[in-house]
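Recap from last week: sequence in, structure out.
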Amino acid sequence: MKSTTLDLRSFADLVYREWVDGSAIEPEIFDFNVEIIADEIIESGGEVNYPIHEALNWNPAKWRTVWLSGKQQRPEMFGALIHAWNPLLSKSEVFQVKLSNPLIDHKKGKPRKYENPAKRGQVGGFALVPRSIWQKVADRYGVDVDFSVLPDSVDFWSWVATHPEIPIFICEGMKKACCLLSQGYVAIALSGITMGRIQGADGKLALQPYLAMFATPKRQVCFCFDAETKEKTKHDVFLATVKTGKLFADADCLVKVLELPLLEGTDKTGVDDFIVERGIDAFHQVYLAAISLNTYTWEHQQDCQLTFKPFKSLAMNVMFQLDRYDIPDYIPKTGIVALQSAKGTGKTKAIAAIVAGADKLALLGHR
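Predicted structure tokens:
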């Protein structure tokens, strides 16, 4: 019994450090959303419960067994039950489970990080939000909230749904969402990058119902998926962002895409990794530099069309620099200079400023 307690405590400490230290999540949010539990609980009357199996809709009788000292015995297992709010049913439920002994994903050939409950439709990751974080969100966006007069029937997420002036962030994974919430940004977690949409009976794509309730006209919706190095994964992220983002855009939302820098020495960077490494001020700068869905689509298409690499490539905040028509000193005065930017960002007037006063000019139109 003593060994089991120590093992459970070690697993609990590991998960706590992973969330609070490794993902910059407020301890109160961790306590609200994560429950550490052993899979076998013997009640005082001798009844045995298997809470992890129950949470995942698994059949305990089918769990693999091992032989020890000539007796059949179930393997010891612990789990971190990650809870979430279901805004459609107005109740808390298990979103995912992290196992102490992860199962192998035979398709990918590696352990799975999380298990999703079996025989359950797709649900969104809506963290359970303590009032301290609720207040932080209200303060960030200048929205009044008086908990003393707020009806008990109004939960955090129904409150957000009625305030389109509050932006929402879409990310993959509950830790990333809780990291952003800890800073006062409203974030919804998807269990996978493609889980934000469904295909209707008519064959057309539509937002998942749990996202559609936030697709209010003029609400800003920011996609914040991981920065990746693998070309296939990058393309998958692009398709998921564009397909789901377009559905929000069709609902008259203002869709933005955050392009996280890849941290040095890594092959992928999540928003929680970035905030832990660089700090919230650096993230805020990334947020300010977020681009529209149209620009994101256009840039990707241009990258796919390039057949010659430029000698030197410089990234600029085009909406800021080109609209002012101030030509930075670091732009070369000779050679071939190509400006690549979306429609309406001021390319023509910037070119006019660059060539102003030139004795001779060969004008090559954008067509």
